[in-house]
Every structure is written in structure tokens, then in C-alpha cells.
Write a structure and sequence with these properties.
Strands 5-4-3-6-7-9-8 form a 7-stranded mixed beta sheet. A two-stranded antiparallel sheet has the order 1-2. The N and C termini lie far apart (44 Å). The model has no long low-confidence stretch (mean pLDDT 91). Helix 5 links the parallel strand 6 and strand 7. The protein is built from 5 helices and 9 strands; from the N terminus they run E-E-H-E-H-E-H-E-H-E-H-E-E-E. The chain has a single domain, classed as 3-Layer(aba) Sandwich (Rossmann fold).
Length: 196
Amino acid sequence: MSRIIAGAAGGQPLKSVPGDATRPTTDRVKEALFSRLESWDLLAGARVLDLFAGSGALGIESASRGARQVVLVEKAPKAASVCQQNAALVNKVLKTTTVSVQRGSVDAVLDSYVNAASGLPSRTFDLVLLDPPYPLTESELAVTLQKISKILAEDATIVIERSSRSPEPQWPSQLVNFSDKKYGETHLWFAEPVEV
């Protein structure tokens, strides 16, 4: 069973997506990731975008630890339904409407943000979390990263969770990888916008 590890809603159980269509982040990796994000002071007051959200556990952990807005993006109907239930739970515990869910493909949601981004600073995100399905090709991921680069705050951070057997993502010219870490079968990649 998945749970919120720490923060204002720490210890709350989360619903899991039935079947094996998603690959939940282990508590060990989640704790290491969020310890690192907190040490970099990236969570308090952040606007967070959780792509390929699955159950929404990563975005919801961000909300529990102080993010001011979290958007969970999930296309699969069962997973999106679980995201809705988990978002409702954490919003009730936090007594806020911090977490919302966008049902649809990641690229369609990103396209809508990119199209709205001109003149809308409210569409800039401080932290983007991606846990794409392993079958997503590196070139498809590169297209997604290109779109993400257009909706980031100046000092934003992107975290990509991939199989430790996957190659380094193909970063668009607007993003630079600044760190990575392996945890068994999981490899986390960290990137930020290139300074203009």
C-alpha cells in the first residue's frame, strides 16, 4: 500500500491503481527524492506538475510537504480515477484545493499549457515530476521535454524517473542535466532551464 511519507498529511494511505499498468515509486526512492528536493528548498510554495501521474503519489507528496499548487496529469481512466480519489483525500486532510487532476495525454495537456503560456505567468511551474511508462521511446520523451521547457519558471527543476537500464534522456537545448542518482532498478535524472 502506498502512503504519504511526510509533511502535513504524512502517514495517510493512498489508493493504488489496480493491476500492473502502473509502476509505483518505492517508498525508499520517494523518501530519497523528496529529501533531496527539500534540501534544495524546492517544495515550499512551489507550483508542481506531476506527469504520467499514476496514482498521483509524487505530486501528492509535494502537496503534503508544502507545494502551493499541484496538477496531476494522467490519461489511463483507472489511474485518473485513483488520482481524483487521492487528490480529494489530501485536499480534505490539508483543508485546501491544492491538488487538481487533468485527465488526458501528457502531450495534449502540455500543448494546452504552451498555447496559454504567452502572457500567462500563472502557467509556469517550479517543479515537474515525470515517471513515464518504460515503453515510451527516448525520442517521444525528448518531444515531451521540449514542451515542458516552455512552461517552466526561471529556476525550475525537472525530475525524470526511468529504469536504470534506460539511457540518459535526450535533453533539448533549453534544459541542462545537473544531477542523477541510481536506486537499484530506478534512475532519477535532474535538469533545469539553461540560463539565458
